[in-house]
Design brief:
five-stranded mixed beta sheet; alpha+beta; extended; Translation Initiation Factor Eif1
Length: 113
Amino acid sequence: MSKNNSSKNRIVYQEFGDNNSPALERATPDLPPEKQNVRVQATRSGRKGKTVTVITGFQSNPDTLQNLLKQLKTQCGTGGTVKDNEIEIQGDQKQKILEILLKLGYKAKISGG
């Protein structure tokens, strides 16, 4: 074992276990839809003039968000993605997404202008 290799991996002091420990991962509560207050907003900032509908306020795990994203993309007929616990759908789809979320039981409101 070379001296350079061992010095890179050597931990001198560590107070709280392994850095990859599951205890250090942030837990995301998976609340039922009727207990979540989500906001639907159309925005163009930082997207080169393209309008995107952003849905924020989710308290769900990533798998639940992926399933909801798939449903919204199918019903709106557009593309979309999940970023930082928010769903982004292409185009100005505020009203359609609001209706879909309300039917699914979410407490949804349109925010912004």
